[in-house]
Design brief:
Two copies of one chain form a homodimer. Chain A is an alpha/beta fold. Chain A has a single domain, classed as P-loop containing nucleotide triphosphate hydrolases (Rossmann fold), CATH 3.40.50. A six-stranded parallel sheet of chain A has the order 3-2-4-5-1-6. In chain A, helix 3 links the parallel strand 2 and strand 3. Chain A starts with 15 loop residues before the first helix and ends in a 15-residue tail after the last strand. At the A-B interface, helix 1, strand 1, helix 2, helix 3 and strand 6 of A face helix 1, strand 1, helix 2, helix 3 and strand 6 of B. Chains A, B: Its EC number is 2.5.1.17.
Chain lengths: ~200, ~200
């Protein structure tokens, strides 16, 4: 429940409206629960604005996120709100039509394919909101160069918001982003011996 | 991305399945962004399970949460998934049919009316997921007694998950809850003089 009033008025030559409408890079990091769920909750707001939304799910998971995926697909297909395009690495990125050659491409290669598509979409201004789910891990693991990501995000044209989730967001990304929330675990049922359950964890 | 394996196996006489399916009380607190958005993101998972969802929005706001509200109403009305009932204090709780007497009831009285309805719904097992949005403030302000809330939650029948959002969740509630995430603000555009904008803050 932010108060709605900025703490400072910067001397940047922009009007309040111009400043207000600057597209944002947002990061949800930390080891607590809620990083992705908050990003998908944000997609509800973007949907309500009628914005095209691109979701890029960077870490394979069987039933993880299936609730959000089904819900956002129903919303995207409804008569109201914006469109939703869901790209999932686990099933092979949808734009990769070629059959896998000698053995599957590695997880790392697939992640890079995903990032290349994000770059193409940013250049084409395909979406108004990008959810790069679990993308921070790829930067942390060094699979994708954080400096390149920052350069691409800094130079992106038009009005495109980007939200990146995942533990261990690199310091350079945190430094660059406009909005960063750290989800800290205070307690989790797994600490008390309770496994994840449907409706809650997926 | 929790690992899916509990850290300990408690000696509580329950089977893994029984333990896994225990209904949860979840708290999203802290001063960072994402407390409510993560709760509504969780509602997407519940919706996908076909669960009836009750949202109780305890703090009045004009355009705040309107994205989530519209999206969840479209989902609730769709042929798939669960139902969504959205109760909003700002417009008067929908179940209060009587006209306001001498002057409007106070904000505090309306909040208590909301809590009374939550109690009735818990007793009747009306929903599978309750989103008590911004409810933590009411406890912090002392409008509603935290010990009563804990007692009601502890004794709730059946399989009802409850997620409570808001800054300043009292220690007793944190102590009682099964899952607590603290959303910490690392940085926010308002710190850089940028006001909230549509699609992001509402």
């Amino acid at each position: 429940m932010p108060q709605g009033q900025p703490n400072v008025v910067p001397d940047d030559g922009l009007t309040t409206r111009q400043r207000r409408n600057r597209p944002l890079v947002m990061v949800h990091t930390g080891i607590g629960k809620g990083k992705s769920t908050a990003a998908f909750g944000m997609a509800l707001r973007a949907w309500n604005q009628g914005w095209p939304i691109g979701v890029f799910q960077f870490v394979k998971s069987a039933k993880w996120k299936v609730g959000e995926e089904n819900a956002l697909k129903v919303l995207g297909a409804s008569d109201e709100g914006g469109s939703v395009t869901w790209n999932k690495m686990g099933e092979g990125w949808s734009w990769i039509q070629r059959a896998p050659a000698e053995g599957e491409p590695s997880h790392e290669d697939k992640a890079r394919e995903g990032w290349e598509q994000v770059k193409r979409d940013l250049a084409a201004e395909t979406y108004s909101l990008y959810v790069l789910d679990e993308f921070a891990y790829l930067l942390h693991w060094g699979w994708i160069d954080v400096d390149e990501v920052i350069e691409v995000l800094r130079d992106r044209p038009g009005h495109q918001h980007v939200v990146i989730t995942g533990r261990y967001a690199p310091g350079a990304l945190v430094e660059f982003a406009d909005l960063v929330t750290d989800m800290s675990k205070v307690k989790h049922p797994m600490d008390a011996g309770q496994k994840g359950q449907r409706g809650i964890e997926w």
